[in-house]
Design brief:
It is a single chain. The chain has about 190 residues and is of the alpha+beta class. The protein has 7 helices and 9 strands; from the N terminus they run H-E-H-E-E-H-E-E-E-E-H-H-E-E-H-H. The strands form 2 sheets. Strands 4, 5, 6, 7, 8 and 9 form a 6-stranded mixed β-sheet that branches. Strands 1-2-3 form a 3-stranded antiparallel β-sheet. The longest helix has 24 residues. The chain starts with a helix and ends with a helix. It comes from Favolaschia claudopus. Pfam families: CxC2.
């Protein structure tokens, strides 16, 4: 066998190895379908595309683990395949102001957050208790969470500081227009 034939054989075996791993990751991988690895009690159905463990979690544990990561992408397992769902659909609400607010005030029903990876719809609550002055207006509560409100009064859309920084770099380096940047976000 010539050296180049050995190299080609090696590349084919690597190709097969990579393909097997991609197929494994598209399925359940090492995840258990019996018990949630976090609580060990309930049946798991959900995994996060952004977390790197690839494990399946029950709804309650998925929500608990993502309370501070409300923009992660969640997949739901039906026993045969994964379909995309959202943390909002699972019941997650993002609390602004301060933790444990006694009278949270619901934000707009279809609150939209534009991030680097996706455009998300999330459920948000603003502080509505006696500490509201300390927490600030809704726009201030959003800014303190590092989300820039699209409007100053009664915001219903926000942009993460990450997406604003990314857009800034794209306009400086690649001369990307706002329209092109936004339509690329919608495509995802």
């Amino acid at each position: 066998m010539k050296p180049q034939d050995k190299s080609l054989y090696h590349l084919r075996s690597l190709r097969d190895e990579y393909l097997r791993e991609f197929l494994r990751l598209d399925g359940c991988g090492d995840a258990s379908e019996d018990l949630c690895p976090h609580c060990g009690i309930r049946t798991p159905f959900f995994r996060c595309r952004d977390c790197h463990d690839g494990l399946l979690y029950c709804k309650e544990c998925c929500l608990e683990l993502h309370a501070r990561n409300p923009l992660h992408i969640i997949d739901s397992w039906d026993g045969k395949l994964f379909t995309r769902t959202s943390l909002k659909h699972l019941g997650l609400r993002v609390q602004f102001g301060h933790a444990g607010c006694g009278r949270p005030r619901a934000g707009h029903e279809s609150f939209v957050v534009v991030d680097v990876d996706y455009i998300h719809e999330v459920a948000v609550d603003f502080c509505g208790c006696e500490r509201q002055l300390e927490s600030g207006h809704e726009r201030i509560q959003l800014l303190r969470y590092r989300w820039f409100p699209a409007t100053h009064d009664l915001p219903r859309t926000a942009f993460t500081f990450r997406v604003l920084d990314n857009f800034h770099v794209q306009t400086l380096k690649g001369k990307t227009t706002m329209y092109d940047y936004y339509t690329a976000q919608q495509w995802k």
